[in-house]
Amino acid sequence: MKPSIPKGTRDFSPTEIAKRNYIFNTIREVFENFGFQPIETPSFENSNTLMGKYGEEGDRLIFKILNSGDYLKKVDNNLLQDKNSAKITSVISEKALRYDLTVPFARYVVQHQNEITFPFKRYQMQPVWRADRPQKGRFREFYQCDADVVGSNSLWQEVEFVQLYDQIFTKLGLTETVIKLNNRKILSGIAEIIGAKDKLIDFTIALDKLDKIGAEGVTKEMLAKGITEQAIEKVQPLFDFNGSNNEKLQQLSNMLSASQEGMKGVEELQFVIDNIDKLGLQSAVLELDVTLARGLNYYTGAIFEVQTNKVKMGSIGGGGRYDDLTGIFGLKNISGIGISFGFDRIYLVLEELELFAKVELSKPKVLFVNFGEDEALYCMKAINKLRNKGLKSELYPDKAKMKKQMNYANKREIPFVILVGEQELIDKNYTLKNMETGDQVVCNMDELIRLMSK
């Protein structure tokens, strides 16, 4: 049988790992610079932790894990004959792979609330899984890099997250990214004034697809969900909402003047936009987008999404405020806000734009050629000393032909090779060869450490 891997998953070569680590390290450095602390949670959770937290579409994409042992034994025969997969799943599967990092984080906060100092700023960089249809930039197994703050209602957190996005993408060389901003209270206010408040989720899920299926597609989906033509007519201006951020805010103020919740959303957006204008951004652009909904049930305030216009790709980041997320696990009145980086999409964007030029593959600085057992032991003693000094060193494991060992050094782009033959053993020296220039120098251990440390 020809070996293969599941669709939507990937193997990574040493070169790809080096590039991925470059992104991880850049994001981690900025997270910690902003005061965030790392945590990790299990790759799978109890099903009841995850189910019902992401809406109907999200629940469908959660990978379920079959119970251990004879998982069909407890299933009622009538249930089996009905062939209702939804009903059977709850009996045969009690655990599921995590869909994102936010809900597990909320569970973590509730479970460890007595150990946490609030406000709690955490970051997390781990894989998540979604039973989605694989396509460019969309995988079934992928990494998310999240930063969240819980225990603070302050809108300065929203301002900081805009700055965080800006600083990370600037450091990665991905300039002119667009940070889209909206507020769930705006969407609730719009739903209220058009008389569709009871269909808020359906309304926002459809509206969120405007850039993908267009105004006609959104209208069709809203009608299918039971939203009236009169209500859709009132929301038509949103399908072509132009102007500066402040001009858009003014239009929203006029539209939402009869909605208390909607006006609260306008006020919150105004605070973020005004302060970002005063503080400035390094390379990103902040854009108010009233169609942005992100279709997730738990957002209650600000909503973020990041895109790049340089490559045709979906969002490369997103998040928002979720004031009542921990409430679903029994911890009330804990406000939270967080953002996520779409790690794998960011990788594809940097690759396409050739922004990995400075990333080097992990490799030794020096390779010791193997001429035999006595020479190898002598070399290993030197390697131990070099490694203790933090100098990456390696012995070619086999007594192979000189040409083969040199080819190995060339292919791995190892800059120096050390030759230890009979004369070097007698003199207790080393012959150091520069692979780029071909120059050779004979030196003792102290001189070798000095030369390698340059």
- Strand residue percentage: 15-25%
Do you know the CATH topology of the largest domain?
A: BirA Bifunctional Protein, domain 2
- Quick one: how many beta strands? 16
Largest sheet: 8 strands, mixed
Q: What overall form do the CA principal axes indicate? A: elongated
Mean pLDDT comes to 90
Question: What do you see in this structure?
Answer:
It is a single chain. The chain is α+β, with helices and mostly antiparallel strands and 454 residues long. It is 42% helix and 17% strand. It folds into three domains: 8-177 and 308-362, BirA Bifunctional Protein, domain 2, CATH 3.30.930.10; 178-287; 366-453, 3-Layer(aba) Sandwich (Rossmann fold). An eight-stranded mixed beta sheet has the order 1-5-6-11-10-9-7-8. The protein has a five-stranded mixed beta sheet with strand order 13-12-14-15-16. Strands 2-4-3 form a three-stranded antiparallel beta sheet. Helix 7 (156-171) packs across helix 13 and helix 8 (184-193) runs antiparallel to helix 13. It is elongated and about 95 Å long. The two termini are 51 Å apart. The model has no long low-confidence stretch (mean pLDDT 90).
